[in-house]
Amino acid sequence: MTPGPGLHRTPLPKGFLASGANCGVRKYRPDIGVIISEVDAVAAGVFTLNECKAAPVQHCAKVLPADNVRAIFTNSGQANAATGAEGFKRNQEVINATAEALKCTPEQVLIASTGVIGVQMHTDKIIPALPDLVERAQEHAESFALAILTTDLVPKTVTTAVKLSQGEIRITGICKGSGMIHPNMATMLGYILTDVKISKDVAHTVLKAATDVSFNMISVDGDSSTNDCCFLMANGESGVELKNDQDYNAFKKAVTEVMVYLAKSIAADGEGATKLIEVAIKGSPEEQLAKTAARGVTLSPLIKTAIHGEDPNWGRILARLGAEKVPAAALAQMDLTLQGIKLFTNGEPATFNKDEVRTLLKSANVKIEIDLKSGPHTATAWGCDLSKKYVDINTDYS
What we know:
alpha+beta; L-amino peptidase D-ALA esterase/amidase; 9-stranded mixed β-sheet; 12 helices; globular
């Protein structure tokens, strides 16, 4: 996989274009973006489980999956959540105007929003800027990736080429997310684009499975957003189909790898974060237990602050596992390893050099490994440390 940004310019799959521009909602950076397929594309989506769903989320959840999508418009600055009937009206006005600029029908346009909750979309600024936004669309991801950022420090893109039995396809991923990250499908938006030829049912199945082990396994602050969504668009422009199980499995694996890469990039860019935390659990008697326990460790403020302070306080991890209903029998025989050093083994404290572990915790990447020795199931979750800067960012956000 080739990551962006930096010196890498992230190419889009065949038949896709993207653009970002400033329409005046934000002062200094792009605030609207569009992804365009030059032909009708299959599209699927997964969305927040928060009961307070933003207008764009409710719209897209009704129309997906579909096989005739031409574009996804996104604005940053206003989430268009908790905005009442007027919010739905403005949502549709932007969809209609985007369709007009693209010379397609409104039914072919998807929409996503990110920003402050309870603020109406500035349609007076957005709509006049749409023709120019469409006109400047190019075959790479960067301008769109910049346009969707809120408190993110860096844009997040990645691309990969996959050889299948009929030829090569490309998969490009773009996402944003830094705060209000605790997806159940953070503010998190994800876009997976590919030129493979698939059905909308396959797109939905692959997207859902990949989401469950990627975006649904990250947490920054435990707050699920009103606007979380992730889209998979496939326009078939490579001419390559999934002809057999080997092709299907290779495609699914590549989509999952792209989404895991993006999920980790969100966790690493968490608001105020200085460290990416990876929690790997094995030996669980149940798959769901492994997932909830791993996510629980990444979510704990006590653990997050200990990692930030480079304190190998393994007792906090053990306590969190118990709170996540890991059986007492498993806790009584488990191993716990931090940065490759065993701190707890066979249910008892291990002897270790605390200064050595403190030094290892200075790394920007921290790994916690837990072996419950109670079954065949595994799970991995990602999060970040909790710093004083997180408070500063969220005090000033609105």
